[in-house]
Amino acid sequence: MATQPHSRKRVCYYYDSDIGNYYYGQGHPMKPHRIRMTHNLLLNYGLYRKMEIYRPHKATAEEMTKFHSDDYIRFLRSIRPDNMAEYNKQMQRFNVGEDCPVFDGLYEFCQLSAGGSVAAAVKLNKQASEICINWGGGLHHAKKSEASGFCYVNDIVLGILELLKYHQRVLYIDIDVHHGDGVEEAFYTTDRVMTVSFHKYGEYFPGTGDLRDIGAGKGKYYAVNIPLRDGMDDEAYESIFVPIISKVMETFQPSAVVLQCGADSLTGDRLGCFNLTVKGHGKCVEFVKKYNLPFMMVGGGGYTIRNVSRAWTYETSVALGVEIANELPYNDYFEYFGPDFKLHISPSNMANQNTPEYLEKIKTRLFENLRMLPHAPGVQVQAIPEDAINEESDNEDKVDKDERLPQKDLDKRIVPDNEFSDSEDEGEGGRRDNRSYKGRKRPRLDKTENKESEEKPKEEVKADKAPLEQENR
């Protein structure tokens, strides 16, 4: 399959402002607040003007049970922090409690995460967009009837099931430091989804993803696992990612791609052990984008949250085909990014235990497996099932031109590159752009600028501050 150079594409972005308020609990490494931080960086870089922004619908129980069991979704829907004693046996059965705690709004959090990925798939199916982004998704460990690895509902599986209504073959790529076990397990016996996971292997959660795990039945050779060692750096990662994905594209010939961009594979991650930079991580997005296939990008792991927001902001710019400055614009969470206040990060001096010989051995074995595939599998022509969600008509001709457009319609508009407005506050060149600020000392806000934060609901302000105190311990 031919690749094309870096280009501009129609990009849709899914975000709900409530998602940053959910809180797994004190000391828990998973912080949904990182999604809000990413969104705020996107605003202040001005990237929001170049893509269509949608608030995801809340996925219904019916949508979630397209993969998950009825009992499990019913349990998630009913449990609350104040009634856990009643659910003791079920909590053990569904693996909820320690790594996957019960917290306020747990079910709604799952609905938003899953809703974004399902809506993104529908948008791609309708050919209404070429790239769809849901940083609130990517929860790849969740199983059919149990929570796992901070994940409760597998939005990726639900999104892929939606894509399969229109696409014969879907490719799933996972660059999280942990093995994408939940997604692999869901499609282990089918030849319509190929799962490719690059991950740390060996006495590391979840303990799966051996080179010899290749799928079963009709799905034999359609699970591709790349087990890696500590210290993986940009150069070594590219040396294995590019040839493997190239061969997968050539052999499997997918018509849509889902990329899980877990940022715990970055250097310095609280739970990770790789040494990738933001640029090295972003090269994976850039390479997959060149194939010009319908492309869904989702979040995933990432526990040093200042670096997560850096990576996902940069990867949004790669998806848009826009270059952004290394100097971070002033934003609501500026103090997180000290002392340098830069977008890009440097690798540490940790040793890379992935020798060229080891990586060559993996490539050789995987290429042998891929040669065992017949040809790109097809499916019989059949009626296309109904879309998971019915989107409202985008026909603007029916809109009264004298009435002000609702915000959701304004968010769908993309500002042309040659259009400027004096009224824009955010982004490069906007009134809030403190690009001359060098990061030595946080600028004092005058009363007018601070008015916005004073008007925030109290619980939202609290959600903003708590992760900051933990991150800067």
From TrEMBL:
Region annotation Disordered: where it falls in the sequence: 390-473
Boundaries of every Histone deacetylase domain copy: 28-317
EC number: 3.5.1.98
Binding annotation for a divalent metal cation: D176, H178, D264
List of catalytic residues: H141
Reaction(s) catalysed by this chain's protein: N(6)-acetyl-L-lysyl-[histone] + H2O = L-lysyl-[histone] + acetate
Annotated SUPFAM superfamilies: Arginase/deacetylase
Predominant place of localization: nucleus
Keywords: Chromatin regulator, Hydrolase, Metal-binding, Nucleus, Repressor, Transcription, Transcription regulation
Gene3D superfamilies the record matches: Histone deacetylase domain
GO biological process, one term: heterochromatin formation
Protein name: Histone deacetylase
Source species of the chain: Sitophilus oryzae (Rice weevil)
Lineage: Eukaryota, Metazoa, Ecdysozoa, Arthropoda, Hexapoda
